[in-house]
Amino acid sequence: MGKKRAKDANAAGSKAELQPGTENVTGEDVKLADRVKDLERLARLRPIDDDFMRCIFRDNPRLAEDVVGTILEEPELDLKSVETQRDCKRLVGGRSLELDVYCVAANGRKFDLEVQRAKHGAGRKRARYHASVLDVESLRANEDFGVLPETNTIFITESDVFSRGLPIYHLDRVCKETGEAWMDGTHIIYVNGENRADTPLGHLMADFCNPDPNTMHNPLMREAVKHFKESEEGVKTMCEIFDEIRREGEERGEKRGEKRGEKRGEKRGERRGEKRGIKKGQILGTVATMREDGRSDQEIQKRLIKRYGLSEKKARKAVLLQYA
Questions:
Q1: What 3 state SS string does 184-197 have?
Q2: Please, are residues 139 and 147 in contact by the beta-carbon 8 Å criterion?
Q3: CB-based burial of residue 61 (10 Å sphere; 0-12 exposed, 13-18 middle, 19+ buried)?
Q4: Cβ pair 57, 27 in contact under 8 A
Q5: Taking 90 as the threshold, does the pLDDT of residue 320 lie above it?
Q6: 226 or 15, which is more confident?
Q7: What DSSP state is assigned to residue 111?
Q8: What is the model's pLDDT at position 201?
Q9: What is d(CA 23, CA 10) in angstroms, rounded to the nearest whole number?
Q10: Is the separation of the CB atoms in 174 and 183 below 8 Å?
Q11: pTM (2 decimals)?
């Protein structure tokens, strides 16, 4: 972050640090506190973080070519299209899938590039489903199976999911009886994000797990990360994304709270109890969601006062999950 932006962030932080018990908390106070939190969160983000990864690859085919080419050891890889957050759903009633980065090469080969920090998010059957979706997306009605393109489903994982200490794992079908490769054109690849070898792939994994663009090896990655962390346009884009995530989280929490409140109200059989239960559920849902988002008790109290008109005393009780 540049000196001016860092100075502005520090100034905003000092203004946003309201003392406990401050009265007349305004919407601007809450927005300012949110802004400071967003800048702190942005500074910690790395390319391996899902939402940030999609941002740096969006409208950046050169970066996608470089990353996929490094993983496949194909420096001359030529991609004709790159799309982030591609929504795939061809079968009616089937589970939809949103691909992190979807690429198509000039020769028709297809690539799905995914990042996963948690091991459970990169399971074998998930990889299988991703690979199958690439196939389903490839054929039109009555088109011959022979025209199916070669597909590569690539998972970059923060930890070594196979625990074998290898930098990369290639998974292809084989005939058990003969040991011969079953060349159907489907490839699943896991890249070990723990790899820090002095190799192009090791450098790439170090960059994926690095929050500081100034110490990155890859110049294209460095440029993309610097844009979203240091330029006015990039920082604004990221803050808008954080706002959207925050709103969605609060809405989910409130819906869960409403359901709990309605259930309590129905059991009591009293309209008054039902309304009170719904409001209590909404409040506790907001508290739970903001806690999950790493918000401080002070920030949560301000939000409850503004959104639900609570007194300071009741807001404090709600944060302690003792609202009555």
A1: CCEEEEEEECCCCC
A2: yes
A3: middle
A4: no
A5: no
A6: 226
A7: E
A8: 98
A9: 23
A10: no
A11: 0.67
Helix (H) or strand (E) holding 57: helix 50-57
Rg of the chain taking only CA atoms, in angstroms: 24
Which residues are 151's β-sheet partners? 110, 186
The DSSP symbol for 95 reads P
- 103 DSSP β-pair partners: 82, 111
**What are the structure tokens assigned to 88, written together?**
């795939």
Query: What does the pLDDT look like over 113-159, one tens digit per residue?
Result: 999 887 777 889 999 999 998 988 888 888 899 999 999 999 999 99
In angstroms, rounded to a whole number, what is the distance separating the alpha carbons of residues 17 and 12? 9
Distance set, CA 17 to CA 4, 36, 310 (Å) = 20, 10, 21
pLDDT in tens, 201-218: 999 999 999 999 999 999
The three-point CA angle 33-34-35 to 5° equals 90
Question: What does DSSP say about strands 151-157 and 110-116: parallel, antiparallel, or unpaired?
Answer: parallel
SS3 state at 88: strand
Backbone φ and ψ of 315, nearest 5°:
-65, -40
Q: Are 13 and 36 in contact (CB under 8 A)?
A: yes
Measure Cα distances from 70 to 157, 204, 226 in Å: 16, 8, 21
What gap in Å lies between CA 185 and CA 151, rounded to an integer?
Answer: 6
Beta bridge partners of 169: 190
